[in-house]
Amino acid sequence: MCLVPSGYDDAVDSVGKNRLREWTQWAAQTTAALHKDPEKKPPVDNMIQLLLGHRGSYHPSAETTGSTNFPNWIIAQRTNGFWKAGGQLPRQKRPARETDEVTTMWTLLALTSNTRDNTSRSADLQTARKWLARGKPGVSTEWWVVRALTELDEKKSAQHEAKLIELQNEDGGWGWISGQPSDALATGMALYALAELKVSPQRKFIRRARQHLTDSQRENGSWEVPSTKKANNGESGPVSNYWGTGWAVIGLAASLERPVD
C-alpha cells in the first residue's frame, strides 16, 4: 500500500527519498506497461494505491511515472456502477460484496484526491456512491476505515470516530474482522483513519493502540499478521506480514505527536 499520511517527509528520510522515488517510479511504470497488454491488465486496485501514494510530496510527478492515464483507465474498469476487487482480494474472509465495496471506496478516494478535473467523471462517481448506499455495514475494520476516509466532513467525522473507538479491542488494537483478535494490519489502518479524522494523538485510546503495535513488533522490525484469505485459516505468511507491517508503520507515523513550535 502506497498510502502515506500528510507531513510524512521526516519519516521518509530514514528510508531515503531517492530510493523511495525509484521504487515508486518502477511500480507505476510497470503497472502502466502491463495495461497496454489486454491479457495482462493490472487490477484496478494497483492503480488506486499508486494514485493514493502520489499524495505524499516526496513522490515523483505522474508525468515521470507513466501514471497520467490511471484515472481514465480506472474509470474504464467500472462495472455495473462499481469497481470489482482484483487479484487475490476476492479470496478474503469477508462477504464478496464488501470486498468490492472496499475497492470502490478506495477508488473514489483516489480519484477525488488526485484528479484536478472530475467534472467529466462526476456521473461515474455518483453512480458508484449510489451503489454503495444500497449496501450493508461491513464486518471488517478496513470497511469502516475507508468509509471514514471517504466521508471526511464535520457532520460525519464524529460518528466515524465513535465507531472506530467502539470497534477497538481491549488490548488497544483492532482485528481484521471486527471483534476478532487484534493485528497490525487493522490497527495501522484504524490509526491512520483516526489521524485523518484529526483525532489528537494524545487521546488515551490512540496511545493504547500505539502501545499495542510497539508490544507486538518482532525483533527484526516486522509484525506477524494473520492472512486475510479464507483458505489460509488465519496463518501468517510473507504477504500478510508485509502488508501488516506496512500499515503498522503508516499508522504509527500518522499518529505521531508533533513537536510544538
Helices and strands in order:
Blueprint: H1 9-12, H2 17-35, H3 44-53, H4 62-65, H5 70-76, H6 96-114, H7 122-133, H8 141-150, H9 154-167, H10 184-196, H11 204-216, H12 238-254
Helix pairs in contact: 2-3, 3-5, 3-6, 6-7, 6-8, 8-9, 8-10, 10-11, 10-12
Count of DSSP strands: 0
Low-confidence runs? 56-60
The SSE string, one letter per element, is HHHHHHHHHHHH
* Average residue-wise pLDDT: 85
Q: Into which percentage range does the β-strand content fall? A: under 5%
Alpha plus pi helix count: 12
**Radius of gyration from CA coordinates:** 18 Å
Domain unit count: 2
Helix content: 40-55%
Brief digest:
With 261 residues, the protein is mainly α. It has helices at 9-12, 17-35, 44-53, 62-65, 70-76, 96-114, 122-133, 141-150, 154-167, 184-196, 204-216, 238-254. It has 2 domains: 1-136, no CATH class; 167-255.
Structure, explained:
This protein is mostly helical and 261 residues long. The chain folds into two domains: 1-136, no CATH class; 167-255. It is 54% helix and 0% strand. It starts with 8 loop residues before the first helix and ends in a 7-residue tail after the last helix.
Question: What brief labels describe this structure?
Answer:
single chain, 261 residues, mainly alpha, 2 domains, 0% strand, globular
